[in-house]
Each structure stands twice: as C-alpha cells, then as structure tokens.
Design a protein that fits this description.
Radius of gyration: 15 Å
CATH topology: Rossmann fold
CATH architecture: 3-Layer(aba) Sandwich
C-alpha cells in the first residue's frame, strides 16, 4: 500500500521547508496531502502562495503514515493556536504515526517529547523545556523527526523518505536531484 503523508499549512509557513518536503516525497512516490488551516491561497513567509489539497477540517491522522509541520515563525504560531492541529497531532502520536517538524515547528511537539532528543531553530530551544537538544541537522527519536532550519530542508525531506520507503528509494530519488546527503 502506498504511504501517505499529511503536510499542514498555515499562513506564514516557511516556503523552502514546505515545498521541499512535498516535492521530494512526491518524487519518491509517496502520496502527499496538503491540508490548509484557511481556505484559498495560503501566503507563506515571503509571500509565495500555495493552495492546499483539502481543508484541515476534512482530515484525521489515522489515514496517514506521517504528519509534517513546516516551520516559519508566523506559520508555527498559527499552527500552535489551531485546535484542529492539536487534535491531529494527538491522534497521530496516540496512533504511533511518524510526526515530523522543522525549524520553529518542533516547539509544537514539546508536550509530547519530554526526555526525547530533538533539534530546532537555535532561538527556539528555550521553548522546548524537557527536550534533550541536539545540534544535529536532522534528528530522529522514535516516532519524532525534527530538523533545524530552511537550510536543512533537503536533508529533512530525504530522512522522511528514508523513514517511509528506505535507503534504496532515497538513492533512486537522489539520482535525479543530486543533493549532498
């Protein structure tokens, strides 16, 4: 069965982190659904607009193998205030799904990650008490995958492919992309 990933988008999301993840996962043959917290085009941190595939109101985590949270200060703040996002995260974690977050977005996982290793944008570390901080560009601890910044988005995306489809799929996708991994 084809793996399915849910990417949650809110206004102010970080473009590189969202688009890179969606692109690399789709190149790997993974079904990606982008769910928006608002209707219509969603403006990113630098004004790029993306259309969601569906509304977040239509989503339950149980139908997905992974939930991904792109960062961006404003986007993360919007995701953090959205009760629907909290519901989806709780469902995913309770259902032992993979949960991935990059840049500022790992802060949204703090209450679930006590005693676990994680990485995030350096200025966000203080917002993650109880988490064991690492400076790794990408960090995997159990069902949680975290990454530091827009500059680590490609490595993050390939780690997601690795977690869902294995090393051979990473190599196959990277033949066309030629990223430094």
């Amino acid at each position: 069965m084809k793996k399915q990933v849910l990417v949650l988008l809110a206004p102010g999301f970080e473009e590189i982190e969202a688009v890179t993840v969606v692109d690399i996962l789709r190149r790997a043959g993974i079904h990606v659904v982008i769910a928006g917290t608002v209707d219509g085009p969603i403006s990113a941190a630098r004004g790029v607009k993306m259309l969601a595939d569906i509304s977040i109101d239509q989503v339950t985590a149980s139908t997905f193998d992974m939930v991904v949270l792109p960062g961006g200060g404003e986007g993360t703040a919007h995701l953090g205030r959205d009760k629907r996002v909290q519901r989806i995260l709780e469902e995913a974690i309770k259902g032992e799904k993979l949960v991935a977050a990059i840049c500022a977005a790992p802060t949204l996982l703090t209450r679930f990650m006590a005693g676990k290793k994680a990485t995030c944008y350096p200025s966000m570390e203080a917002m993650m008490p109880g988490v064991i901080h690492t400076e790794d560009r990408v960090c995997v601890d159990g069902q949680f995958i975290t990454s530091r910044s827009p500059g680590t988005a490609m490595e993050f995306a390939f780690e997601l492919v690795f977690q869902l489809a294995g090393a051979a799929r990473v190599r196959a996708v990277n033949e066309g992309v030629m990223a430094r991994l």
